[in-house]
Design goal:
With 421 residues, this protein is an alpha/beta fold. It has 19 helices and 14 strands. The strands form three sheets. Strands 4-5-13-10-11-12 form a six-stranded mixed sheet, with helices on both faces. Bound molecules: pyridoxal-5'-phosphate (PLP). Pyridoxal-5'-phosphate binds next to helix 11. The site of pyridoxal-5'-phosphate (PLP) has 15 residues, from helix 11.
Length: 421
């Protein structure tokens, strides 16, 4: 059972929450409280998929078909994750070995499996706007699933050519639209479709939003993997953060019993949360462009979940989560430092690594989340490190494929007509 943390009388089951995305008044869903899991040591000894199935069953509760959950997890988590030593006390939990080379594959793939399975035989359409990474994760997660059609809008010529190749060459049930306009136009057009009864009825629209509870729960699972490998009682995890879904999942993992001592909330110059942790004032500033662009978020919309999980207790919050802010210059130095030690990283992970370098105490062991593959940020990585990063399979394969996107104007009614055809 889940509650809407903004409107606490609203209680829904997991299936409903996955299908609605948001609750009434735009509230986020969470379990009312997190019950610790028994026998943590036994849990840590299980292989990743088996362990994740147990965690998911515990989070979702006894009213959902356990066999179904097991199947969904096995189908979603069908790629490896690694823990790599970067220096003697710091490790990278590499979450970027999925089909689109970013940690978002975990959440997007699990959510896709859920949405399809919870509507057996029913046709649904997913519509979403992307400025790059999310589009690819969502497209690959739904690719080839029966009865699901996916529509992705992105600003024409405003995403990197490799990013575009990654999700606009699939075809099949994935339709992509290159919008003559910017990301805000795309978001406006998607919103207008959701508000249009005719479009909604004809297409059975569903969103693939990043605040979906299925994405959050999926991300809880990989924190246990770091604990399983390190078996250390002074584990500090640094999370490169934008919308703070990843850190929220970490806090849930710890409340379930994952042996994590504390977290570092690592951000780039978009430091709303670090400033809040200093002075308890929530003051978003205009978004700044940085080299770690997936973290260029000034109003992180998962933050209310973290406050709820910690009972709005500011002292508890400050003990558990330390802030860390890195400029692009500091991020690039961290990339260079790691490279000199033989480890290739990209700007997002490097922000978190740099925070650990400052913060980690003698007796502690640090892990930072590797949220993206270095080749995904090839231009920056190659320039900063003076290297030529090889493209992994997933990118090399799509490089020469033909783009299948339809070019559209930013005119909403014309776009609706196109969808209804
Ligand atoms: C989305 C993203 C982040 C930020 O994750 P949040 O859960 O939004 O805090 C960090 N790094 C990369 C590479 C991402 O794509």
């Amino acid at each position: 059972m889940l509650i809407n943390i903004k409107n606490r009388e609203e209680k829904v089951d997991f299936k409903t929450a996955v299908q609605c995305g948001l609750g009434r008044d735009g509230g986020l869903f969470l379990p009312p409280y997190i019950t610790p899991m028994p026998h943590i040591q036994d849990l840590l000894e299980l292989p990743f998929v088996d362990r994740s199935q147990r965690i998911m069953q515990h989070l979702i509760g006894p009213n959902t078909d356990a066999t179904l959950i097991d199947t969904l997890i096995a189908q979603a988590f069908n790629f490896p994750l690694h823990l790599s030593a970067v220096d003697p006390h710091i490790y990278c939990l590499e979450l970027f070995h999925g089909p689109t080379l970013a940690f978002k594959d975990f959440g997007a793939r699990f959510m896709a499996q859920c949405l399809q399975q919870f509507n057996p035989g029913k046709k649904i359409s997913i519509i979403t706007a992307t400025s790059g990474d999310t589009g690819a994760a969502v497209a690959h997660a739904f690719y080839g699933l029966e009865n699901v059609e996916v529509h992705i809008l992105y600003p024409h010529n405003k995403i990197s050519p490799l990013q575009e190749k990654l999700f606009c060459t699939l075809g099949g049930n994935i339709k992509t639209y290159a919008v003559q306009g910017d990301f805000d136009d795309c978001q406006r057009m998607v919103k207008a479709c959701f508000q249009d009864d005719e479009v909604n009825a004809a297409l059975q629209l569903n969103s693939a939003n990043s605040i979906n509870i299925a994405r959050l729960f999926a991300q809880v699972c990989y924190y246990f993997e770091a604990c399983a490998h390190l078996q250390h009682n002074q584990l500090v995890i640094a999370v490169p953060s934008g919308n703070f879904g990843n850190l929220t999942a970490g806090v849930i993992a710890r409340q379930l019993g994952a042996p994590i001592k504390r977290f570092i909330a690592a951000t780039n110059a978009n430091d709303t949360v670090p400033r809040f942790l200093h002075n308890q004032e929530w003051q978003p500033l205009p978004t700044k462009e940085t080299a770690s662009n997936a973290m260029d978020v000034s109003s992180p919309n998962n933050w209310p979940r973290i406050m709820y999980l910690l009972n709005n207790d500011f002292d508890a919050l400050k003990t558990l989560i330390k802030p860390g802010v890195k400029s692009d210059k500091e991020t690039f130095s961290a990339m260079q430092f790691m490279h000199n030690n033989g480890y290739l990283s990209e700007p997002h992970g490097a922000v978190a690594y740099a925070c650990l370098q400052n913060e980690l105490k003698e007796e502690e062991v640090g892990v930072f989340l590797g949220t993206a593959h270095p080749a995904k940020f090839k231009e920056t990585v190659d320039t900063v490190l003076d290297v030529s990063t090889p493209l992994p399979e997933a990118l090399a394969q799509v490089q020469d494929k033909q783009l299948l996107s339809v070019e559209v104007t930013n005119d909403t009614s014309a776009f609706k007509q196109l969808l209804l055809q």
